[in-house]
Amino acid sequence: MAAPPLVKRFTSIPSSPSNSLLLPHQSFYKKTTLCSSFFGANSLNMLNYGAKTSKLVNNTKRKMCAVASLGGLLGGIFKGTDTGESTRKQYAPTVSLINQLEAEMSALSDSQLRDKTAALKERAQLGESLDLLLPEAFAVVREASKRVIGLRPFDVQLIGGMVLHKGEIAEMRTGEGKTLVAILPAYLNALSGKGVHIVTVNDYLARRDCEWVGQVPRFLGLKVGLIQQNMTSEQRRENYMCDITYVTNSELGFDYLRDNLAMENC
Fold first, then answer.
1. Going edge to edge, which strands form the sheet with 196-200?
2. What is the C-alpha to C-alpha distance for residues 28 and 130, in angstroms, rounded to an integer?
3. DSSP H helical segments within the chain, as ranges?
4. H/E element holding 38?
5. What are the Helicase ATP-binding domain coordinates in residue numbering (predicted)?
6. Is the pLDDT confidence value at 155 over 90?
7. Average pLDDT over residues 55-71
């Protein structure tokens, strides 16, 4: 029996243990099918990963304003071309709004903090933009992170999350908290009801991040999935349907190919 079209979109937020370019999420790969695909009727669409990466590299050569330097606590990544000060000034008002909400969030009980997710989702469904929801959403994630894993995202990490949400590139050095940064825009974009993929380089890191920082969105009521090698089609489909899914770049690419082969064979 023919399956409904695959029309859901997702956000891809790569994560890496070394210096990395965190790719933007504004462009999505859409497709529609009437066949039974690998990912199932309500699955998340796959990103044209290679083409998007190539396009990004070319864009950054031509337009440095699409790059935010966050390394060294907002300093020095591009050898003097961007000290990070302009980035800090650009996002300072929003960081201030998030910080102003910290005392309010700290006063909430665990259940009250968790209820914030449902309230934010409702506002998103009523048409309020994610940009307007960002300060409160980031404040919620910061407080949940403090309670669940004992880490409070610093202002520079909030800025990194905002840069990713805006669809720009953020480069951060090893140890500056890319893993925690990714949770901020992932949670925000998941409020829209569209799945978010956090992409890393190997199964170990995907599993580690899912089990560690994945506790934060789980605490807040979101479903967090994980794609690993040797998973069955049903297991993959179930995990891709989560609000946030951790996956490696290779698994993501091959699942996209398998999805298209399944449709071509219908």
1. 11-14, 196-200, 244-248, 224-226
2. 17
3. 49-62, 71-74, 85-100, 102-106, 110-125, 130-148, 155-166, 178-190, 203-211, 215-219, 233-240, 249-264
4. none
5. 159-266
6. yes
7. 41
